[in-house]
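Posting this for the archive.
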Amino acid sequence: MTKSSESIFDGLKILEFGRFVAGPYAAELFAHGGADVIKVEPTDGDATRFNAPIFPGEGKQYIIKARGKRGLPVDLAHPDGRAIVKKIAADCDVIVSNMRPGALTRYELDYESLKSINPRVIVGEISAFGDKGPYGGLAGADFQAQAASGLVLSAGAFDGDSPQFVDAFLTDYMAGTLLAFAISSALWRREKTGLGQEVSTTLFQAGLALQHGNANIFEAVDSWKREFVDWIEEEQPDPRVAAQKRRALSGTTVVGGLYKTLDERYIALGSSRAGLKKLLPALDLDDPFISDPNWTMPDNPAPHFDLLKARIRVEISNRTSSELGKTLSTNGIAFSILEYLEEAMLGAQANESGFVYTADHPAVGPMIMPQAPVTFGRDTYSASNSSPRFGEHTRKILDELGFSDSEITDLINSGVVAETLSDSAQGS
């Protein structure tokens, strides 16, 4: 099928007030589709420009998240700076923000403030917890959302007996994806009504969504969940024991995890009861958990499953990863070989599936980058090669807003907007 030369979001104009991960990622998904995304950043540079810099003002995270966007360094604390971004907002389709709760309202860039001058605008916000509940209105980051949503204990990572959060910004990326979906839905609705609206999600909600399969609580079906909560509150058990019991009761087991092979690779195995019914026979093992219909889960399942895990570990330690891969594939058992991110990005799965590409960044040179994480059969949807250099688009954007050359120069000289990074911001 021949793809259209026009990108999916051609003609869509987005104003981004993104910080770090979630907001920039949501806007990035639209930039891949050809939307004109104007990223507003402080006049001393977006914070991610200086995270792991590989060029002055060009950090790795910034380069990836800002691909295909235009940049506008502007001082939002200055009335003239707010006037500039409000002028852009009056003529844009979407605003994306994950600034601190209430920031858009303070800058009069929230939906209620803008709808009179731009009734079609869609304002999308991400916060840690929203504005309600015990954490309402508080700023927060991914690891706090992981903890509050139960994701930390669901993931089951422990350092000794201490629970550990997953170091991959899970709720940030999930929230960015959810917001992109919400904005797309609002755009579809606008086609019918002609009106915009505000949409939002939170890192906390994203953490719950990542556990969707176990998140629905119906007393008639999952009464164990209420019993489990009561047991936790009454017994105050060790977190590891509690996590093991929750998994066991929910139909999964603690035998899922990483196992070392004979050739000193690690293999990741799933943990469902159905998976065990395939796995154990393939390893010439058996256990009453899968073979005895009358077997009862003990209050503390840890000793039983620790023993089963040890038996599995011995069997796997006597086989190579290649041998195991053939056995598991033949039996339809889910598995993967443990790899570092760098290995995965350079490996066959990522490359043959088209998820990575080599970008020729104008400042940095060739860089291996993640491609947009979805594909379309008919339309163009692909990541751009480059992120905006600091101040690269300042004059162009202000010119589009109707500012004269002298007015633009005055705004730069007064510090309302910026076109070059200061020596201190560059770290010199």
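The chain is about 40% helix and 15% strand. The longest strand covers residues 36-41.
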